[in-house]
Amino acid sequence: RKLSALDYHNPAGFNCRDETEFRNFIVWLEDQKIRHYKIEDRGNLRNIHSEDWPKSFEKYMKDVNCPFKIQERQETVDWLLGLAVRLEYGDNADKYKDSTPDGAKNADNTAKNAEPLINLDVNNPDFKAGVMALANLLQIQRHDDYLVMLKAIRILVQERLTQDAIAKASQSKEGLPVALEKHILGFDTGDAVINEAAQILRLLHIEELRELQTKINEAIVAVQAIIADPKTDHRLGKVGR
């Protein structure tokens, strides 16, 4: 981030362990940003191919009061970048004082969109009453944490009460023809008509059981989604007796 803020030409690919790249970087930093030396005094630092360059760099570190040793390269680079950022800001204080980082704006917006319930006062009596009324209306199990209940309500609304969900649920289902003779009733009433009616009732009952199982599975998924929320303390609930 500091390299990007200083308009370094290759912030993502900079490698301080590459000796040539490191020396060129130090020269760029002094020439363009820090400017501690006068131009005529930068010759030894600019001579990156000299065997004495490490000594010149060590002297430079002392001159700018860098607290790290020459062997602590990453720490030194970070400290020099911090110095350069401070100097850059000092030279352009009026330009930067009222600006807000784009990353901070995006992060703030992302956080708000990701967690719209974060600013709610869960201890407000009106909030509790509203959540309880919604939970009763939607037949959602009561929980000691009202925020957890509200999240359960949100999940139910998203999955069952959105326009797409309602439209999908409203679509008529075309039934498939069933050959009753292929389904064994298991008993005989002595009347062919009653036997056929019993077979139909059994098939309808099986269909109802399948729908019930689907709803149970959806409820389990919704509960798991709430429990998996890292902000939810599931220890508030009880399992078993």
TrEMBL record:
Protein name, UniProt field: RNA transcription, translation and transport factor protein
UniProt gene name: Rtraf
Family: Belongs to the RTRAF family.
Superkingdom as given in the UniProt entry: Eukaryota
Entry-linked InterPro entries: RTRAF
UniProt-listed Pfam families: RLL
Coiled-coil regions, chain positions: none
